[in-house]
Amino acid sequence: MVLAGSTSTIPRFAKPSGASCAVERRSVKEEISPAVGFFLVVDARLGETFDQCVERYGSLIERQGSAKNPQLVFAKDGITVGINFLGGKAAQISYSKEKGCFEDAEVQQLLAVNSGGSKWKYDPAESTRQRLPSVYDKQVCFMREDGGAFATHLRLKLLRSEFVEIASAEYRKAIG
C-alpha cells in the first residue's frame, strides 16, 4: 500500500487491450486515488479460523497440496481463495480471479484487510529479485512495516493468469 506524501514510483499492473496484463510505472500520487465505491467481497484475513472462512465463503470446494501443508480452496463471486492454516489460523492466502486481472484498488483492498493494524510498503528488492526457473512474467512485492506479513501480486506467463498471495511471517518461517 502506498504511503501518502511519498514521491517515489512503484510498479502497478495495468490492463492493456487484449487478454493479458502488463506492468507499468505510475507515480504514487496516481496510486492514492482508488476508484470510488469499489468493494471486493472476497477478503479473507490472516488469522481467521477455518469456521470463519466457511462463514465468509461457504463450503470448502477442494483440498490441495500435501497432507503436512494442505491448501483449502473456496470460491465466491468469481474469485478462488486458497488458504493454508498454521496453528488453526489462516497463515497464507492466495487469491485468483476466474476472469480478468486484479485492479490496483482490489490489490490495495486485499492488503488493507490483511494489515493487522500496520501499513504495507512496496518491496523493490524482492520485486526485482530473479527466481530461477522463473514461471512468473511480472511480480510486485509488498511487506508490512511491522514485519508480520508479506504479499506478492504475480502474473504467470504460461497460464496468463494473475494472483495475489499474502503470507504471515510465521508461515514463511514454518515452510522454510
Q: What descriptors fit this protein?
A:
single chain; alpha+beta; about 20% helix; two-stranded antiparallel ribbon
Give the CA-CA distance, first to last residue.
Answer: 26 Å
Proportion of residues in helical segments: 10-25%
Rg, alpha carbons: 16 Å
Q: Number of helical runs? A: 5
How many domains, in number, for the residues? 1
Shape: globular
**Mind summarizing the main beta sheet?**
8 strands, antiparallel
Oligomer: single chain
Describe this protein's structure.
This protein has 176 residues and is of the alpha+beta class. The chain has one domain (9-175). It is built from 5 helices and 10 strands, in the order ββααββββαβαβββα. It has helices at 28-31, 50-57, 104-113, 124-128, 169-175, and strands at residues 9-14, 22-27, 62-65, 70-76, 79-86, 89-97, 120-122, 136-144, 149-156, 161-168. The strands form 2 sheets. An 8-stranded antiparallel beta sheet has the order 3-4-5-6-10-9-8-7, sandwiched between helices. It is globular, with a radius of gyration of 16 Å. The two termini are 26 Å apart. The relative contact order is 0.18. The model is unreliable at 1-20 and 22-39 (pLDDT under 50).
What's the helix and strand layout?
Elements: E1 9-14, E2 22-27, H1 28-31, H2 50-57, E3 62-65, E4 70-76, E5 79-86, E6 89-97, H3 104-113, E7 120-122, H4 124-128, E8 136-144, E9 149-156, E10 161-168, H5 169-175
Antiparallel strand pairs: 1-2, 3-4, 4-5, 5-6, 6-10, 7-8, 8-9, 9-10
Summarize the structure.
This protein has helices at 28-31, 50-57, 104-113, 124-128, 169-175; strands at 9-14, 22-27, 62-65, 70-76, 79-86, 89-97, 120-122, 136-144, 149-156, 161-168. It has 176 residues and is of the alpha+beta class.
